[in-house]
Amino acid sequence: MADTERASRPETTITTPGGAPEEDPERARRHRMAVFGGAERKLADQSVDHSLAERLAALVADAGEVYDLAESPDIYGDGVVAELERRTAEELGFPAAAFFPSGTMAQQVALRCWAARTGNPTVALHPLAHPEVHERQAFSQVSGLRTVHLTDEPRLPNAAEVLDFEEPFGTLMLELPLRDAGHVLPSWEELVAVVEAARERDAVVHFDGARLWETTPHFGRPLREIAGLADSVYVSFYKTLGGLSGAVLAGPESLIAEARTWRHRYGGQLFQQFPAALAGLLGLRKVLPEIPSYVTHAKVVAQAIGEGFAQAGVAWFRVHPEPPHTHEFQVWLPYDAEVLSAAALRQAEESGVCLFRRWLPSPSGPQGLSFTEVTVTAPGLAWTAEDVRTAVADFVRRLR
């Protein structure tokens, strides 16, 4: 799981009530990032693993492949930003698209536009969807939207739950994949049925597709066909594609024209965004074609992790989902998160192998149950199943 906390606070000395010194959280965070970023072997390369100089140098070195750098920088969304909008709309199969500085803003704009068109501000979504868990009630606090939940199961709703819900809603929002449930996806047939059920209720369908790029292997369909099920789609460029920031909302021309007006009202009409736009174009060119190989190898890694824990005699563990639906999945263990995080850090620091990163306590389960997210990208392709099993055995030894 990416550690994206900002490094802006000064170092301080913290003491416990008994007077013993504790490690400064900021210093610990910096140390953790340096260790994981500097590991010789890792399953995924994350943006926080690199310095500002390294990220800028990479952008300068590669950006000429995707855009003419002799052109002028963008001004309020023209130039390279408009080119990213065009290419993303083409990739998703929509007639128009608008670039936003964040997915939070893009989705608020999309859903308030749909609410005005349907006459219903109620949005049906999963309780684990990103707006419900990670956006501080932005839908209700900022955009006047109301949310309802069609199911509490750790999966997307099925067609029967959509059809049988007891009150009307204007928009059905589906997060593909549902990250906080384990990056899970329905089957293609289930997804089609859910969309058809929403249409039968006269609701529009919006995809929270921050990680939609990852779904093509699971569904066995091209991206345009998947996105084409929805009335509008949001995609992210820094999730999965390795960009700097930013998101695109794609949909019908009239919706996107209205969204551009609301983007301005929300403060998203930025003067220049060319670094983020160039990074997004690079993600489409270089990373997007490689994602199927990441998903395929994630299944190998996930199976080997399970085998490693079993061989090490761990009494209970869980790899979820098994096999993974995308190139990201969860691993669960019956230990405190602090214990697991410390073991992961020691392993990377002492052996140069970064198998796991930070662990988190179960949000709803019993104490002493924790999980981590595992992501497999280009560096992970070099790991064999035996490499993974060996790393798991070493991690378990550090726990004991």
Automatic annotation (TrEMBL):
Identify which cofactors the protein needs according to its UniProt entry: pyridoxal 5'-phosphate
**Entry keywords, A to Z:** Lyase, Pyridoxal phosphate
Q: Which residue numbers delimit the Aromatic amino acid beta-eliminating lyase/threonine aldolase domain?
A: 77-302
According to its UniProt record, this protein's enzyme class is lyase
Coiled-coil spans in chain: none
Catalytic activity, EC: 4.1.2.48
Q: Where is this region: Disordered?
A: 1-28
A single GO CC term for this protein reads: cytosol
An individual GO BP term: L-threonine catabolic process
GO MF annotations in UniProt: L-allo-threonine aldolase activity
Q: Which InterPro entries match?
A: ArAA_b-elim_lyase/Thr_aldolase, PyrdxlP-dep_Trfase, PyrdxlP-dep_Trfase_major, PyrdxlP-dep_Trfase_small
Q: Which family does it belong to?
A: Belongs to the threonine aldolase family.
Name of the molecule in the record: Low specificity L-threonine aldolase
Say which species the protein is native to: Streptomyces hundungensis
The gene designation is ltaE_1
